[in-house]
Records
---
Amino acid sequence: MSLRAQKTAKKKEEIVKSAISIITEKGYHNTTMEDIAAKLLMTKGSVYYYFKDKHDLLYQSYKMLLESSINTVADIQRENISVEDKLSKVMTAHIEYLIAERSGFETGINPEQFFEGNKLKSILDLRSKYASEIDRLIIEGIDSNVFAPVDVKIVRNIILGAMNWVIRWYSPEGEMRGEEMASSITKYLLRILKQND
Amino acid sequence: MSLRAQKTAKKKEEIVKSAISIITEKGYHNTTMEDIAAKLLMTKGSVYYYFKDKHDLLYQSYKMLLESSINTVADIQRENISVEDKLSKVMTAHIEYLIAERSGFETGINPEQFFEGNKLKSILDLRSKYASEIDRLIIEGIDSNVFAPVDVKIVRNIILGAMNWVIRWYSPEGEMRGEEMASSITKYLLRILKQND
Amino acid sequence: MSLRAQKTAKKKEEIVKSAISIITEKGYHNTTMEDIAAKLLMTKGSVYYYFKDKHDLLYQSYKMLLESSINTVADIQRENISVEDKLSKVMTAHIEYLIAERSGFETGINPEQFFEGNKLKSILDLRSKYASEIDRLIIEGIDSNVFAPVDVKIVRNIILGAMNWVIRWYSPEGEMRGEEMASSITKYLLRILKQND
Amino acid sequence: MSLRAQKTAKKKEEIVKSAISIITEKGYHNTTMEDIAAKLLMTKGSVYYYFKDKHDLLYQSYKMLLESSINTVADIQRENISVEDKLSKVMTAHIEYLIAERSGFETGINPEQFFEGNKLKSILDLRSKYASEIDRLIIEGIDSNVFAPVDVKIVRNIILGAMNWVIRWYSPEGEMRGEEMASSITKYLLRILKQND
DNA sequence: TATGAATGAGGCTTCATTCAT
DNA sequence: CATGAATGAAGCCTCATTCAT
C-alpha cells in the first residue's frame, strides 16, 4: 500500500471509530454528518470525500466492527488452550471491546432495518460467521464432554444477547471495572454450558 | 369511565398497538405518522387528535409495554408457587409477549436516546421497577437456598439481555414454536442460578 | 371528478404553467424549487405536496406541453380544410403557443439528457406522435400533388427546428407581433413543400 | 508564439474540444469538472490551471465554436463562386461541423441563460457577426435577383433553427451519412429563397 | 505544472406539525 | 371528530473551487 493509500485508510478508520461512538451514543438518526465531522474537527465535505454517503459510513463502520470481532475469535481459536478457556476468552474479549469502543451497534442497529440487498447480505454473512465460530466452540465442548449437551443455536443467542446488552446498562462510572464485569458475565454464562457432575 | 372516555381509550390502545408493531419493524425514524395512520385506515390528523405528537405516541407506547410487563410480574408474584417457578413464569411470559406483540422496543429503542427529563425518568422508573421485581425473585431464591449466591445486578441483566435479544433472531417461520423456545431459554437461564449441589 | 380532485388538478396546472415559464427563462438547473414556489406565493413544501420531486415536475410539465400540442394538431386534422391550410394552421399554432406560454422546453430541454427509462420513453413517444401527425400532413399533400415529393423526415425536422428556434430570437418587444411572425414563418416554410409548377 | 505558449494553447484546445462533446452529451450542469478532467486523463486541478473556472471553460468553448464558424464563412465568402453556392456551402459546413464535433451548444446553451455582462455581449456579438454574414449572402442574392425578396431576419432564423436542430435528431447510426443529410437540408432550405420563375 | 485533500455554499427533500373547513 | 392542504425547520448531499505539497 502506498503512503497515500495508507493515509487515506487511516483517515477512514479515524472517521469510522468516531462515527461508531457518536452513533452509539445518540443513535443513527439523531447523529448528523455535521456531528460526525465536527467531532473530528473536519467539515461535512471532508467526510463525504471518504464515504459516499451517511449510509455507506454506517455500513463500513458496522462491517469493521464485525470483521474485528471475527479476527479476535480467529486468533483465540488458534491458541493452545482448552475449549472452555477459548469460549471464555471470546466472551470476555467481546464484552471488553463493546465497552472500550463504546459500540452499541449490535443492539442499536438492526441490520434488517438499516440495510438491504447486497449490503444486508454482507452484514448477515459476517454475523453468521461470527455466530458459527461460537457454535463451533460450544459443539467442541459438548463433544469432548466438557459442556453439557444443549440446543446450540439457542444457547449461542442467549450468550450474544446477554453480552450485547452490556452496552445498555454498564456504566464506566460504576463501581466495577470493565474487565471485572466482563469476566463476571462470562463466568455466569459458562454455567449454562458446564456439565453438572 | 364514561362511554366516550372508553371509546377514546380503546382507540388510543389500537393506535399504540399498531405503532409498536410498525416501529419495531421499521424503526422509529423510518416510521412516519402517515405510516401509522395508514395502517389503521386513518389520516394523520386523527392520530394527532389522540396523541400530542409523535414523540408522545412513542412514550405512551413504551409506557404501556412496560406497565403491561410489570402487571404480569405482579400477577405472577401473587401466585402460590415456588420462587423458581415464579421466575420461570416471568421469563417465559416476557419472551412470549415480545414474540406475540412483535415488539422490539427493548432492543430497538434506547430510552436515553429517545427521552429526556420527566419522560425519561418515568420510563427509567418503570424499568427499575420491573428490574427490581426480577431482583426480588433472585434474592428470594438465594435466601431460600434454591439459587446459588450471585451478583444480582449482573445476573438480572444477563437475563434481560438474553430475553430481549429474542426479537432479533427468532423467526415464527422457523421450526420451533414460540412457547417451546421461550421455555427452552428459560430453562437455560435458570442454570445460571441453580445450586450446583 | 370530485370537487377536491378538481381543485388539486387546477393547482397542479397552475404550478406547471408557472414552472414552464421560469424554467424557460432561467433554465432547469438555474431554477430552484424556491423560485417556482415563490412565484406562486407558495412555499417549497406545498409544491412537494403536488409533485414528488423537481424532476417529476419537469416531466409532468413537458408531458403537458406535448399533449397540448398533440391535441391542437388533432383538432386541426378534423377541420374541413385543405391539407395546405391544415399544415399551415398547425405551424402557426405551434409558434404562437411557444410565444404565448413562453415555453422553451423544446430547445432548452433535451429529453435524452433529462429523462431515462419509462419517463424518457413516454416523452419520446409523445414526440413521435406529434412528428407523425406532421408527417401525415406532408405525405397527404404529396399524394394529392399539392406538395412536391420530399424526404419527409428531413423536411419535418427542418420545420420543427425552425419553429422551435423562435423562442430563442423572437422578442415581444420587437416591431412584429407574434401572430404576424408566426404566419410569416409558416409561409416561408411552406415554400419548401410547394409544387414549383 | 513561444514553444511554451504553443503547448499551452494546444492543451487548452484539447480541453475545450473534450468539454464541448461532454457538455453536448450530458448538459452543462450535469457535467462536472471531474468528468471533463477524467475524459482527458487529467485531474481537476490541471483543468484549473488552464481555465479560471468552469464558466470560463464554457465561455471559451462557446467562443471557439462561434469563431470557427465565422472563419468558415469568411473563407467561403472569399471564394469565387455564386452567391447561391456560397450560402449552400455555408449551410453544409455548419451542419457537418455540428455533427462532426457533436456540438449541441447552439441548442443546448442559451447565452442569455448562461452568460451576463461582457461575456454575454461578446458571445452575442459573435452570433450577430455570424448572422450578418448569412444575411449578407441573402441580401446579395436578392439584389442580384437570384433569391426572391424575403424578410431577411426571419429567413435567416429559420435557417439557423433548422440547422441547429440537427444535433437533436440526426443519428450517425442511421441510414444517411452526415454529408448527405447536410446537403439535403441545404437543398430544401434554399427553396425558401429561390425565385419561383 | 500537477495532485488530491479539504471546504462550504447552495439546493433538494422529508416529514412532523398545524389549522381551516 | 376527521380531513388534507400548507408550512418550514432540519439534514443530506453535490461539486466548483482552493491550496499546500
---
Amino acid sequence: MELSKNFIPGAVETKWYQHWIDQGYFHSVPNDKPAYTVVIPPPNVTGVLHMGHCLNNTIQDILVRRARMQGMNPCWVPGTDHASIATEAKVVAMLRERGIAKSSLSREEFLSYAWEWKEKYGGIILQQLRKMGCSLDWERTSFTMDPDYYETVIKVFIDLYKKGKIYRGKRMINWDVKAKTALSDEEVIHKEVNGKMYHIKYKLDLPGDEYITIATVRPETIFGDTAICVHPKDPRYTHLVGKHAFVPMINRRIPIIADDYIEIEFGTGALKVTPAHDINDFQLGQKHGLEVIDTMNDDGTMNDAAPMYLGKDRIEVRKIIAADLEAAGNLVKIEDYVNQVGFSERTDAIVEPRLSLQWWVDMKQLAAPALEKVMSDEIHFHPAKFKNVYRHWMENIKDWCISRQLWWGHRIPAWYDKEGNVYVEASLEKVYTTYPETVGKELYQDADCLDTWFSSWLWPIEVFKGMSNPNNAEINYYYPTSTLVTAPEIIFFWVARMIMAGEEYMGKIPFKDVYFTGIVRDKQGRKMSKSLGNSPDLLGLIDQYGADAVRFGIMIASPAGNDLLFDESTLEQGRNFNSKLWNATKLLKMWEPRQSKEGVVPEDAAFAMDWFQAKLSATQLEVDEMLKTFRLSEALKTIYGLIWDDYCSWYLEWIKPGFEQPIHATVFEKSIEFYDALLQLLHPFMPFITEEIHHTLKTQTEDLCVKELAPISKVDESVLHAGVLLKNVISTLRDARNKNQIKPKDTIELHIQSDNNTAYQRIQNILAKQINAKSIAFTNTAIGSSIVVALEKDKFYLVADQAIDTASLKENLLKDLAHQKGFLESVEKKLANEKFVQNAKPEVIAIEQKKKADALARIQTIEESLAQL
RNA sequence: GGGAGCAUAGCUCAGUUGGUUCAGAGCAUCUCGUUUACACCGAGAGGGUCCGCGGUUCGAGCCCGUGUGCUCCCA
C-alpha cells in the first residue's frame, strides 16, 4: 500500500469520529467497572466555540480518553446552559433587527421567540465539540431548562425558602440599565476609567453668601442628595454641622451631618450623600435616617426628581450639567481623576447601584461545609493555590441576589396578592392548597427569573436526575463525579455553589478533583475578546491544521493553572508532529515487504530493542505519574520527546537496515509493537492521527480508542544507562567530526581505548553507522596522527584522510583541562571543610568523593591526550 | 484600601524534602548538510550575576526578611 506523501487530517477526522460514535464507545451505562465521571461546564446555549472552550474541553477529553484506556467506565456528560441574561440579550437584539420591541410582546410571545432561537442556534457549539474529537456521551445531552431540570430548580427554590434560607429584601443591588436587571456582584467588572472630579459649592442656609464645597465624580446625582457629611473632627466644618445647605439648581434644603466614615484628606472633606445611588451613601443614610430619593428610571434616564433633565441618560447629563452648574454659579473647578467603574459583564453597560426589592439566598450556613471540604482536601484543587482564593471568598461571603428582571429562565415561584403578601409554591393551584386563606383571591406571579447560576449549581446532580428522581441507579453510580475542569474565573459563580448544593441536597461532595485551567490570552498577553478581535476562529484553525494539531498546540503551551499565551506557531509545531508521525509510519511500511526470518537477530538491533523497551517503560511510568497529578502539558512534552527523539531519531536509525537490505522479521515486529504503544500513549492528546496510524500499521483486532493499556514492564536500568552512554559517545564524536570539518560523506577509522571494551563491543555496529566509521578497533596505546577525544575515562582516536588541525584540538583540550581543574579544586575545598564533613549526609559526601575521583581520572586522560599531540 | 500570586536562556515554562560533573526542556537563533521516512527534515553549537539587597546554613534558584516590577481577585 502506497501512503500519501503527507498526512491529511480532514477526512480522517470525520471518518474516525463517526466510527467511534457508531460503535457506541462514548456511551456509558453503569456497570462493574469503576466510574470516571466528568460533567462539562455547560457552555451558553447560543454560544460558539472559542479558545477557552477549546482548552477546557481538550483537557476533559484527555482525562476521559485516558480513563477509558485504563479500563474505567468513563462518562462525560455534554449539555448547555440557558444563560438567561446573555441569551435574552441576543434575542432582544434579534427582535430589534426585525423591528420588534420586547416591550410590545407578551411574556409568552417573547418566550416563543426565545425557544425558536434556542432550537435554531442551540446545537452549534455541541457540533463544534465533535469536530475537536471530544468523546462526550451524546445520549446524555442536557439543558438547564429541560422539563425535569426546570422543575428541580423550582423545587430547590421552594425548599430553601421553606428552610428560611431564601428571603426577599430591599437592598442596594447592581443595576444593568441596558438589560434592565439586577446583577450579582460577580457579574460586575471593575475597570479603571479616566473621569473628572467636579468641585461643586452648595449655598448654606445662613445669613450672608456662604457656601460649602463638595467633590464628586457623579455630578448628575446631586438631585438625589439628602445630606452633606463631614468628619466630626474636621476643623473646617465643625461649625456647620447641624446647619443646612441647598442642592444647586433645585434648591432643596438638606442637612449637614457628621460621621467619622469621612476621610478628611479626600476631596474637600465634605461628601454629598446620595443614598439611592451609592452603596456607602445608602449605609450612611440608614445610620442617620436620611431620606432616599431615586433620580433615575430603570433604563438609566433621569426621572422627575431632576425635572430639567427628564428622560436624558445619566451619562449624557454628566456631560452637560457642568455648564449649567457653571451658569448657576455653583461650579468651583473640574479636575482629572481616575476611578474604578463597574461594568456589566454581559452588556458592558455602566452598572448603577440601585435600591431594589430582590430575592436573596442566605449564604452563611451553606458556605461553612463547602469551605471545610476544600480546606481538608476532600476536594482537591489543582493547582492548590486556588484554595487560598476560595477560602478568602467563603469566609467573607455575602448573600446571593438570585432574582433577575428577565423572562428567559426559571420563573420565580412566588405569588402576590393585592396586599403584597407572598406565597411560595410550585404552581398557583398549590398556592391555593397550601395557603387556604388565598382561595378566592386574585394572585399574580413574580415576573422575574432566577439567576442562571441558581440552576447551574445543580448540574452534577441533575444531569443524572439526582433530584427529579432521587436515588436512581445512575446518580448512585456516577455521583460524586471525578474531575471538574473549569476556569478560575468562575470559582465563586459555579464551583463554590456546586459544592454547597452537593452538600445540601446529596450530602456528598459533587466532585473529587477540580482542575483550573488558565485563561487563554493572545501573544501580547491580552485576554481574548470579541471587542479586541484577537480571538481566532477555531473552526478555521481546525480546517487549516487539523484537530489533533490544534489540541497539541493548545496543550503544549498550557501549564496547569497558569494563563496560556496562544501563539499559532504551536499549532504549526503540532502539524509538524503529525508529519513526523506519518513519516515514521511510511518508513516502517517501506520495510514491511523486505523482512527476513533467517538467522538470529543482529546484536546491535537486539541492543536497540532492549534499550527502547527500557526507555518506553520508564517514560510510561513518568507519564502515568504526571497525568495522576494533572501535569498534562508536561506529559505531552514527554511523549513528544519520546516519539520524536528516542524513537525516530535514535531507535529507528539504530535498527535501520543498510541500503536495500532486509530487516529481521523479529526486529520489524517489535518496532511495530513499540510504535503502537507510543500511539496509545499519545492517543488521549491526539486521538485522530493515532487511531488512523494504529490501523495503518497492521490489521488490528480492536480500535485504539478502547484498547486497554497493558501493564508497564520492569525497567532495565543498566541497559538504559548503556543507551545514555552510547548517545553521549555518538554526539561527542559527531561534534569532533564537525569541528574538524570532516564531511558527512567521508568515513573515518575509530580506535577506542577503554578499560571496559565489552561495553562497546555490543554497540559498535550502531556506533559505526551513526558516526560514519568504516572500522572500529580497540587499542591499549595511543594512535598517532589522529583526532583524540576524551569522554569520561575513555579515549577515542579518529583517523581521517584529511589533515588534522592540532592547534585547535590542543586549545579545546586545554580549555577542558582548566575547567576540570577548577572543578576539582572546588570539590576538594568542600571535602576539606570540616563542617561539611560533619554535617552533610553520608551519601552526599560519597557523591563528592566520587566527583573528586572522576575529575582526577578525567584530568589524567586529558593530560595523556595532550602529551600525544 | 484588603487579599492572592508571579519574577529562572530572546520567548513560553520545568526545577519535587536546601546537596550528583558546576540550572533543564520546547520554540526561536547560529553553523553544517538535500545519503531513498521526513526541509513540516537531519547533525551540531551558542545562549542564564536564577529581579535587587540582606539573613539562616558547611552548602540557597529552592528557606526567612526587605525592596522593586508585573498580574489577578475583592472593596
